[in-house]
TrEMBL record:
<dbReference type="Pfam" id="PF00754">
    <property type="entry name" value="F5_F8_type_C"/>
</dbReference>
<dbReference type="InterPro" id="IPR008979">
    <property type="entry name" value="Galactose-bd-like_sf"/>
</dbReference>
<dbReference type="InterPro" id="IPR059186">
    <property type="entry name" value="SACTE_4363"/>
</dbReference>
<keyword id="KW-0732">Signal</keyword>
<dbReference type="InterPro" id="IPR051941">
    <property type="entry name" value="BG_Antigen-Binding_Lectin"/>
</dbReference>
<feature type="region of interest" description="Disordered">
    <location>
        <begin position="164"/>
        <end position="205"/>
    </location>
</feature>
<dbReference type="InterPro" id="IPR012334">
    <property type="entry name" value="Pectin_lyas_fold"/>
</dbReference>
<protein>
    <submittedName>
        <fullName>Discoidin domain-containing protein</fullName>
    </submittedName>
</protein>
<feature type="compositionally biased region" description="Low complexity">
    <location>
        <begin position="39"/>
        <end position="50"/>
    </location>
</feature>
<dbReference type="InterPro" id="IPR011050">
    <property type="entry name" value="Pectin_lyase_fold/virulence"/>
</dbReference>
<feature type="domain" description="F5/8 type C">
    <location>
        <begin position="159"/>
        <end position="295"/>
    </location>
</feature>
<feature type="region of interest" description="Disordered">
    <location>
        <begin position="39"/>
        <end position="61"/>
    </location>
</feature>
<dbReference type="InterPro" id="IPR000421">
    <property type="entry name" value="FA58C"/>
</dbReference>
<feature type="domain" description="F5/8 type C">
    <location>
        <begin position="17"/>
        <end position="156"/>
    </location>
</feature>
<feature type="signal peptide">
    <location>
        <begin position="1"/>
        <end position="27"/>
    </location>
</feature>
Amino acid sequence: MRLRSLGVALVATAALVTLPAPMTATAADIPLSQGRTATASSAENAATPSGNAVDGDTTTRWSSAASDDQWLQVDLGTTASVTRVVLDWEAAYGKDYTIQLSQDGSTWTDAKTVTGGDGGTDTLDVSGQGRYVRMQGVHRATPWGYSLWEFQVFGTTGGTTPGGSCDSANAAQGRPAAASSVENAGTPAAAAFDGDPGTRWSSRASDPQWVRVDLGAVRDLCEVDLNWEAAYAKDFRIEASSDGQNWQTLKSVTGATGGKSSYAVSGSGRYVRVLGTARATGYGYSLWEVAVHTGTTGTPPVEGGGDLGPNVIVVDPSTPGLQQKFDQVFAQQESNQFGSGRYQFLLKPGTYNGINAQIGFYTSISGLGLNPDDTQINGDITVDAGWFNGNATQNFWRSAENLAITPSNGTDRWAVAQAAPFRRIHVKGGLNLAPNGYGWASGGYIADSKIDGTVGPYSQQQWYTRDSSVGGWTNGVWNMTFTGVEGAPAGNFETGPYTTLDTTPISREKPFLYLDGDEYKVRVPAKRTNARGVSWPANTGGTSLPLSQFYVVKPGATAATINAALDQGLNLLFTPGVYHIDRTIEVDRANTVVLGLGLATIIPDGGVDAMHVADVDGVRLAGFLIDAGSQNSDTLLRIGTPDGNADHSANPTTMQDVFIRVGGAGPGKATDSVVVESDDVIIDHTWIWRADHGEGVGWETNRADYGLRVNGDDVLATGLFVEHFNKYDVYWSGERGRTIFFQNEKAYDAPNEAAITHDGIVGYAAYKVADSVDVHDAVALGSYCNFTADPTIVQHHGFQVPVKPGIRMRNLQVISLGGMGQYRHVINDTGAATSGTDTVPSKVVQFP
């Protein structure tokens, strides 16, 4: 249970709650801080000095004077990548405090803020680099001071240690440069990094001004050489940054006299900046040359940017044989359901005439404009089901994004099933979601799109549309859900298929690749609250990240290199391919973007987990597939840490178009598919699937007990598809969870009732809210059964929740597919049983 935002009563008694003690470091895990030099703002007396907190002895302690605003800091001796800080509090503990990092012991960056602490042992996951680490107290919990038995800092060192070597080469020469201003066109920023002492950068005649260089990757920095022209800086700082936005001071200089100077520094960064704060003359700042020297660690840095790899097809309207390119990929991918081919079409802005881009498995098509209307297709983007005799229920794993389509006959066809998102599309006509001949279809998802004409789902069983605009909607089968959709039909769930909410409570569009001139960038849209309609063309808020800030992952990349890139501060752009990894991908830095193209697929080998995300703000996971390996993984994707309870409401982590598969392409196993530990996470369209067909399929062959487990508080799911797990498909134990639209099928291959009977109940609920939960809200949920191994199975219910005032479940239905098994109730012991072979839903409009 998380303590945040549980109401006044709980806050008033929070000090009385004892949380389970987190796991402490083992004896072999020696802190970087142990035995290092420690200082403090004060000490209570001579017996409680600062050094006691880093001596490794849990019977000695540091304690401060009895006032707020006290601090303790440790000098690690060299720059470190800090990943964890453990505070072992004495009875006089900090209620509110901040963990801070610094390169020089004077300029500090917040790495973790704790409010409402309850003493004991605090284990904090942090992400940042620094030589100095500080606990800055804000409010005490007792009348005494702050008191720590031990203050432990964990991480890795890779910087240049005292006495280490400093490379004589200039890492800045020829690298991209920028400046706050230039005096004229003849004195650009690049002139300070071109290796030519006869060219220079000069600024406008005002304070402050800066010039910076991008080294291409985070490097260990040991020396910076400056060669000033006559217009020099009297006072300036040399700074470093991993992202070009947050800066740490490496050296602060006052009273400088110009000329040539070399400065020894200790720190790391991708960007190095000279920031002038006071000029020595009436002119601006002027540098002939800036040279940056880096530590020699023996491991070359991972470079950001570069080409997009062999399976990304970039085209423009003049590309010869364009239709043939689409046809060639489609011929290979049309029925290649479990193959290894992965492709991404990227269309540069412009107008494409007479195109019919048929989209098969693991194929994505995207425009490269900032807005959908920048890329116009006078033709079609088509998904049909000819390969499967007109049955579209297996048209998985494909996507279309950021385009405008004027359909050749007035209506475009997008007959898909799960894991086939349709995002940021402007259809200048109608949209048909059914296959030719109106065969079966089981989709689907639309977001941030504008369809000028009518959407016709026809045979589609279910569909979720979010933050869009439609000219009309003709019909529906079981579950058609709309939130924030202009033109959506009125809700009629009691008698029909529609659930309609006027707005989406929280949404944030998926990151996407686009061209800014000739430069690739990734747009990271801003969070919206109570959204309605599309986010474009205004594109308000959000940021754009250059491709140079991404490690462009290509086939053959290893997990070691991927993690090294993350450690350097790079984001990840997975190009189309299948990536076998032998260690977990660790995403530890706030605001990291992990974006896939062409359904890039990650397969964990040897039983490792595929990906872990730390309990940090604003990580963006989007557009990739995790496929379970043959050896059981504990958890394929974990977001947050079990002991994490930080407030991420202002900047939540998002999981969008991230799909999970267990079996189908071969035997695969995982106890948990996705576990969400962090608070405030947004799950926006996922399909978490234990395979019911393909290779490696069987009750024990592709064993996977749980699809989605949510332990974090205030988690929102919009467009949740989870199917066929051996136990619970969704198990929700976090407080104040919300789900809008849920589609589920129970496991086809349950061998008999005995195999799924637990606690006197036949069958695991498709969606269970834990008995401990007090507040939960879910709307538009459907569960279907198709017990092909034993059609006599009668599942007790589709949904199971505690009956409490804060539990609100609306618009629920269960369906027997052709009489292959039945449900006895809809939710708990409420709702009529299904019966017969007519595939008629049994509904509950509101519970309790």
